[in-house]
Write a structure and sequence with these properties.
The protein is 29% helix and 21% strand. The chain is α+β, with helices and mostly antiparallel strands. Strand 2 and strand 3 form a beta hairpin. The radius of gyration is 18 Å and the shape is globular.
């Protein structure tokens, strides 16, 4: 997808004029990373960001500070239009972004200890794919999606399916698919950590079941498993 429209051109020219810097946190660098995800087909929507040690939203004691969309209509908002992403960022340069899962990609989300182990094994197996780190706590493995078939009977559920309201139910492995989202790099968190790419979105999306096999073994080895048994079927 071409990202050279007037909004992206204006935004990048504005940032170059204000600061001739290649800093990874500069607005132009952030936009470049976001547009890399857009080119990969990831649908994006704006999210809250840190406001000091709190969330930028108005919710008292926000349960997911700086990790949720700013609008309840995020599923409708989520887009791969580079001009719209540039407009959102121009209005709020500090905004984080989420990507809607279950359309182009799913995300398998695991504790960092299991993620590091699994990433080494996947690399040894020659299985490539986008991978992000959420601070020091979680790893996000982006995979091909199970999709949204025309015939709903062909869509197979999993007890690991994670949505924004049920993430605490799966402290080990989480599977973000239809109706869910994850933060997308680059994103800042209130504790000063960040969401960053380990392998960028230009990597091919691997088969989710192949990645799942490696992740479940890694989670078991480090003791990062959910309390309840799960089945796919």
């Amino acid at each position: 997808m071409e990202a050279g429209g007037r909004w992206t051109t204006w935004w990048q020219r504005r940032d170059r004029q204000r600061a001739r810097s290649a800093d990874a946190d500069s607005p132009a660098a952030r936009l470049d990373q976001l547009l890399g995800a857009v080119r990969a087909g990831f649908p994006l929507a704006p999210a809250a960001h840190p406001a000091g040690h709190r969330c930028s939203c108005d919710r008292v004691a926000c349960p997911a500070p700086a990790q949720h969309p700013v609008s309840f209509a995020w599923q409708t908002q989520a887009t791969t239009d580079p001009e719209q992403v540039a407009r959102w960022l121009s209005r709020d340069p500090q905004a984080n972004f989420v990507t809607a899962t279950g359309r182009v990609h799913d995300v398998l989300d695991v504790p960092a200890e299991a993620g590091r182990l699994a990433l080494e094994r996947l690399t040894a197996l020659g299985v490539e794919g986008p991978v992000a780190a959420v601070g020091e706590d979680r790893y996000l493995f982006f995979t091909a999606t199970r999709g949204t078939p025309v015939d709903e009977d062909e869509w197979w559920p999993s007890a690991l399916d994670s949505t924004p309201d049920t993430m605490s139910e799966h402290p080990g492995l989480r599977w973000h698919c239809r109706g869910s989202y994850t933060l997308l790099p680059p994103a800042a968190l209130p504790d000063g950590s960040a969401v960053r790419w380990l392998h960028g979105p230009d990597q091919p999306l691997p088969d989710p079941l192949r990645v799942l096999d490696v992740l479940t073994d890694a989670c078991t080895e480090v003791g990062a498993v959910a309390e309840e048994q799960w089945l796919i079927g």
